[in-house]
């Protein structure tokens, strides 16, 4: 019986292009690259996009419809809370925490929100790195308002994440290592010229006009970016920021509030194994189905979280109005939900009230049990503990 690898070799050498067509040759070249894959050597045979197999199977399209439905409901929920700062300051920070945890950069929700404004005293290195992810995500979100996703934009994003000027890597030695065995599981392509060619192809694919569903395209580009691994460090986090920005660029979300990394951290082994199976076996369908499930589940989770935040804001208005009607106003309550950790200066800088009045109001809110006071050196922090507890709930 003829060995399949031998068959692909023969076909590549002797096929008549006029008889079989260039696409078929490309397909068998991909088979050849799979056969030659060695985790110890750079995968310079990484095929360019698009994949030559038909990914839009009935099963994938069914999963697409379900993911789109949940995303559409999330887009409606985004508008439920008039003060967008409430969502932009909270859920993206949870996304930052989960995405960083995938890279074993671990911090607590309390630490993150306490230092979210960067003025909460001593900050450990993991918290600093996670906050840089949030900064990079917001930076990309703002950049999208004037220009599309591009190689230059992702270099800027990775620079913010790493806090060091970052360009496409030009030195060898980058590899993905198994945390347990410490063996190489994947060595990405090497050579700055090749990397730039692959990135240019990736960028063109992002903006190519075609009939491919944007969610399928999102899954495909994510694999390709991770496989290219263009930077010395920060690739995983940059790639996950790209996911959110692409959804916004395509009009599927208005703000970067999808908690996509939450699903990935809960299914981390599947995430890495299915990415690798695309490289070794061209198992695109399995990867795309995994990714669509991630979008569906996290869109549903995020929508439910927004509904819960909205309910808490409304019940908080009623509580403060009944217990301290003399200080109640709607703007004050909304401000108390822009961050779980509140400082006197937060009230003052909004021009809502002066420092003495702000101090008095926050003290009253502590007395009625709505806030909890905590001292950090000379600073006073007031914690919206119900909001913090809600954000910590999985």
Q: Based on the structure given, which CATH architecture of the largest domain is correct? A: Orthogonal Bundle
Largest beta sheet: strand ordering: 3-5-4
**Count of domain modules:** 3
Q: Biggest sheet, open or closed, and with what strands and sense? A: 3 strands, antiparallel
| Shape by Cα distribution | elongated
**Mean pLDDT, as a whole number?**
89
Strand content: under 5%
CATH secondary-structure class of the largest domain: Mainly Alpha
CA-to-CA gap between the ends?
54 Å
Number of strands: 5
Unreliable segments of 5+ consecutive residues: 1-29
As a whole number of angstroms, the C-alpha radius of gyration is: 24 Å
Please identify the structural class as seen in this structure: mainly alpha
According to CATH, the homologous superfamily of the largest domain is Fido-like domain
The percent range for helix content is: 55-70%
SSE run:
HHHHHHHHHEEHHHHHHHEHHEEH
| Structure annotation, total helices | 19
CATH topology of the largest domain: Fic-like fold
Written description of the protein model:
This protein has 394 residues and is mainly alpha-helical. The chain has three domains: 1-36, no CATH class; 38-303, Fido-like domain (Fic-like fold), CATH 1.10.3290; 324-392, Arc Repressor Mutant, subunit A. It contains 19 helices and five strands. The strands form two sheets. A three-stranded antiparallel sheet has the order 3-5-4. It has a two-stranded antiparallel sheet with strand order 1-2. The relative contact order is 0.13.
